[in-house]
Structures are given as C-alpha cells and as structure tokens.
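Try this one yourself first.
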C-alpha cells in the first residue's frame, strides 16, 4: 500500500495547520512554510490560515482569562512574580505586550489568559491580536519557506532512503534484543 503524502498535505494541510496553530503553532507554521516552498500549499493561504489559527486560539484563551483568569492564575503559586511583572507590562505598554506575547518563550499559552484577567478591553485585544497573529504568521511561515530550500532536499533524500533506514533500525533492534535475551539466558544458567 502506497500513501501519497503530498496528496494528504494538499488535501488536509490547511486544516492541520489551522488546528495546529490554535494552541502551539510555531512548528505547524514552519512546516506550512516548507509545504508552501514545495508547492504543496499556497504561501498566502498558509500565512492567512496560520494567523487565523493563532487569532482564534488566543481569543479563546483571552476570554478564559477574562472569566476564570483570577482562579487559574492563582494556582500558579511559583510563578506569581512573573504574572505580576506581566501585568505591569500590560498596564504600561498593552499594545506591545499583546502583539509580542506570541514571541515570548513561556507565555504563548498563559499570556492571553493573563491579558484577559488584566481587564484589557476585548475590542482592543482583538485588534492587537490580529496584528500580532499576522506578524507572527508572516515571520514563521517565511522562515519555513526559506528553510524549505535547506530542508526540502534533505526530506527528499530521507524519503528515498527511509525504507533502508527502517530496515537498518529493525536489524539493530533485533540484534540488540537477541543480545539482551542471550545475556539473560546465560545469567540464569549460571545461577
């Protein structure tokens, strides 16, 4: 049975990208850029779908923070100093924080919850969220697209040699398993 991976990516790639960008995103966005480089997906659609996934995911987290943020954030006892610092940044420079939160390591998921709990207006968050998501998607899809020049030839080589690598891995596992079984048998025999 032969699976047409390119066909699957072409058929379901945008949906996978949207779902992947709802929460995490960077990995899916980079891979979407590689797929666009390979001609499997359209670059412009990849940027828009990645941004849409980011927008939806952060909007949901924002409203979770708006209604349940105090309770949720109260459970992070060890991180209260970071939450206080984030709230100060939101009060001082809300635009910069909302746009930049998706680029801050460790704040990708909790950042919108903190912003929602800070009582920033939903309309302002939506506008800044759209700007941030478009900027984020453009940067990461472009990195994936440019990286596709480096990654794509390697992936083609891997695809050609994947069967050989799988057989080699199976052989190594078999030899290792036989060696472990023989040692156990020898140890049991000596006892």
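Now uncover the answer:
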């Amino acid at each position: 049975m032969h699976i047409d991976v390119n066909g699957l990516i072409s058929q379901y790639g945008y949906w996978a990208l949207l779902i992947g960008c709802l929460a995490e995103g960077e990995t899916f966005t980079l891979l979407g850029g590689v797929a666009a480089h390979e001609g499997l997906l359209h670059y412009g659609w990849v940027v828009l779908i990645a941004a849409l996934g980011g927008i939806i995911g952060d909007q949901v987290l924002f409203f979770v923070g708006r209604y349940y943020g105090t309770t949720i954030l109260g459970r992070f006892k060890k991180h209260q100093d970071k939450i206080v610092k984030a709230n100060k940044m939101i009060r001082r420079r809300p635009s910069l924080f909302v746009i930049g939160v998706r680029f801050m390591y460790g704040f990708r998921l909790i950042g919108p919850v903190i912003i929602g709990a800070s009582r920033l207006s939903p309309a302002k968050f939506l506008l800044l969220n759209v700007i941030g998501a478009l900027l984020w998607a453009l940067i990461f899809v472009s990195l994936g697209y440019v990286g596709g020049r480096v990654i794509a030839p390697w992936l083609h080589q891997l695809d050609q040699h994947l069967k050989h690598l799988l057989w080699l891995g199976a052989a190594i596992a078999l030899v290792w398993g036989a060696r472990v079984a023989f040692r156990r048998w020898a140890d049991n025999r000596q006892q």
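Discussion: The radius of gyration is 23 Å. The first helix runs from residue 5 to 23.
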